[in-house]
Design brief:
This protein is mainly α. The chain contains seven helices and four strands. A hairpin with a 3-residue loop joins strand 3 and strand 4.
Length: about 150
Amino acid sequence: MWKFCQSCKKCADMCPSGAISKEAEPTWEPTGVWNGTGRKLYPVDYPKCGPWRGMPPGGIGHIYEAGPGGCSNCQVVCVFTKTPKASIHDVIRPLVSSTSVFNSFFTTLDKSFHYGEAFVTPLGEVNVSPDEWWNRDLKTYPFKGRVMGDGWA
């Protein structure tokens, strides 16, 4: 799979902490015990993810608790985490492992669908503002004016 990662690097580009390597080639050298040894990979410096999970840097157990997804950007933007709702996904997945000439095209295609840039609310509305979601009124959300147990707001 890292053959595809060599041309993509969406996860590294979206990583706010810089924890994901942007090197051209994967390496046998881990950044720490959390990467394991004996595997050729793009190392992730997991302790850098910790603050994005609300964990203080260097806290007890910090290295082992700060696994991938401190902010989840890497998981959201990864081309391989998309739910295969279209038949084209079944065609593309085998191709990336055997035909690397198309990999940058597939990354561009993934970006053109704006995966990870918006989410759908329980009401089916597309919300492109994470701030709006985090600052929503929990008393009425997702009922738009109806307060649970209190009738209409």
